[in-house]
Amino acid sequence: MNRRSFIRNTSLLGAGLALANLEESFASSAFKAKEDWYTLFKNPSMHYRPFVRWWWNGDKVEKGELSRQLRLLKDAGIGGVEINPISFPKRADDMGIPSVKWLSNEWIDLVKHTADDAKSLDMTSDLIVGSGWPFGSEDLKEDERAQVVLVYAEKLTGPMQFETSQFNICQAVDPGVTDKNPLRKPEILSLHLAKDPMSSLDQAQDLSAKRNDATIHVDVPEGKHVLYAVVRYTSFAQVINGAPGASGSILNHMDKQAVQNYLNRMSNTMQNRIGALSNYLRALFSDSMELEGCNWTHDFAEEFQKRCGYDLMPYLPFIMFKVGRLGAVVDENYGAEKSEDFKEVLSRVRFDFEYVKACLLRERFTETYLAWCKGLKVKSRAQAYGRGFFPLETSLGYDIPEGESWTTNYLRHKLGEEMSDEDYRRGRGYTMINKYVSSAAHLTGKRVVSCEEMTNTYLVFNATLELLKLGSDQSLLSGITHSIWHGFNYSPKQAPFPGWIQYGSYYSEKNNWWPYFKYLNTYKARLSSQLQNADMYTDMAILPANYDLWAEKGVQTDPFPERLNVPYTSLLWEAIHKTGGAADYVTELILKDSKIQNGKIMFGKKSYGVLFLPGVKSLGVETAKKLHEFVQQGGKLICMETTPSKSLGFKDMQARDREVQTWMQKIKGLGSNFVFVEKPVDNKFLEWYQSFHEEQNLPKYVKISEPNRFFMQNRYIRDDQSEFFFFQNAHRFNSHKTRIDFLSGVGKGKQAWIWDADTGERFRLKLDSSNGFEHNFGPTESLLVVFDKSKGGEWYQPAKLDGTNKQNLNAEWELELKHAQENRSKKIQLSQLIDMKLDDELRDFSGTAIYRKKINVQNVKNQTLNLGQVFGITDLFINGQPVGVKWFGRRIYDISKFLKPGSNDIEIRVTTTMGNYLKTLKDNENAQYWVNRPGREQEIQSMGIVGPVEIYN
Length: 953
What we know:
By secondary structure, the protein is of the alpha/beta class. It contains 22 helices and 45 strands. The protein has an 8-stranded parallel barrel, surrounded by 5 helices. It is globular and about 100 Å long.
């Protein structure tokens, strides 16, 4: 097949892609721009509130408890649930409660009850397809189960007679999956003996006639050789954390009939029992496509031949790497050493292999899934990524594409404490995939971009509301607009402490901070009420070097890829947003379906006048031609580190390479609109971009006087052309003072406002003659700046950080400790405020620490109480009157109206974390697993008021 027609003939392209899903989003249809945006912000509707992933642990659920937990969630400010049956957590006591089998009549009735009850509470229900990830079941037929091909390579030195067996070969490559399937069945597809080193296929002897021999004899000639075997495993892996009835074998996502059978079985079984699913569910959800390395199906070789025009099988042993869990590459140099020319050939074939796999997954799984949801009249929601999937294009068709954010992961990165230039994963709440998912949404006009929000498999009992806010604000900056908290565990009230815990940040009524959870959820709802009714402004694009990655290292499109060819791509978009601009990701398929008008790349409602190619070595010929048209019309193309000089894929590669090189030479000849730049030294992208964007006159709409790694912004435009900006200081402990100037006519003819998403209040923001203002952002502080035509209102007054007539209040406090888990209390005297973790008597406390003190104040006007450093949620009372709750950032209170001349009683209630206490429960296996398990021991956490506590006016 001609290379040009190879890409053209896939179902990903053409008018279907360019026009995909430009319908109104879920949120936009519920609220029109002519309404009062501020009223919506102040009192957001329920569907703007965060949802929770609701683990039905072991499906040990019953109606009364489901209803009780729904009301707990609503009272905590949750707007909806994702019903998610999952295996019963290890170490938890199930109290003899039986499981309800997935798709049984009883289970279906419980789903109906839940959805009906949720609807009566004005809450929304989604339902996961299957259970665990990726989905499957015990009832799949053998030809419906996932398949994988793996390579075996044994180094041999001849002359010798070598003897091995089918058993030895298959055992050596037994898939290293998360949950091995006892039904797994191996088959050797091919055997080759290759010279080592190897420079062409001619140096490989085909021994496949021996592949079915129980004992395999090989005559090895003199010299170094490698015996290669390609082994196919069917039924090779089981569903991870599948609930009863939906565990068992993983489904073959590359078999259209198997996918249809599975999906139809689920929907038909349910609808035959309760009627149309659309009466109960907003969306059907598919979790992340962790296919455990699945890379094969029964007709893969035939499809490859049809699409690429040559036979894959002679090349297959030599393009494969040694892989481990989830298909991760563990050895890129497995097998014989290859010459550079032969490596290049193999990388081209590898790209074709990965591309065909992605196309089959798109056509046979994604399109089937989307049609199924559409036929059921429910929305499709999915984490449409994983090894083997197109990282951006797969999200285009979903009604609600979804990303993923973490409080912490296996890296144990210090969220809010580091922002590494060496490892793009460290210190970020958002994962790499979020930018692909949100870019897909922007390209297709979708405004609801959901997120498995703040995934937590580590700091379960030490996650704070402040940390969740910090990470989910970062998630917002990656393009997310709709949070699905990870996750709420179905756990009966009578379950032994700490209850049934699968994962998550211990969203439980037994958590100390549960009574304050509503503050975070209302904050998020207010932001989502605006985000889901506006378009994120982006006018630059980045083309990641994913096709080079596929060719060189194989597919790496999970949230935390181990190997990237261009690991700094995320640093580039971050630098743009940290310096006052905005960018999306695009792909070659997007570029191919775009139009070039007046030097802009036009796709749907989006237009981009600048395109970055960071580390891109290879392009399709049609893409190179499109880039020439773009630059010729005035668009700016910036190549970083390398200029593309190769084409994609194997067939006719030399001729197509020359075409790409010719087009790139023409582009270079067009003048200053083509720019080549080296990668910044030590990945210092923020420092580099500050000067580079000025030199190249790259677009930005905000000037930030003091760019900072922890400080980022996004801009949004509403349908009525009013707009708003979101700014965040993502550092947990440090403030950031900067000046912000709005450029390019931003806000012209409109009033600037600060809308406080915590309180729901708004204040007019006074801009100076440069259309800007200065602000000192406190730790974890965010700011929503709105431009509209509203009039009147009070002027914004930032918290007073210092003052006169200052009193230091660090000494002599009475401290009452009300233990949350043991229902006891005691009082002690503190001579000085101290971090509780530094005191043996205080370190293991969990609950509410109440600080009390009398102060004498004669002049009560303009008085501010600054609590300084605090670890925990503060609830302040003065003279018995509630002043307010502070759950993030600076704990600064205006207390003037609560004081009286003379003596005043101060009471500060501090809600602490639980992890320090759980570490002491040595006989509680469940608790110890989460705080003391070997290799993941939790650090002792800081708690309480450290200060300095000061009062000033």
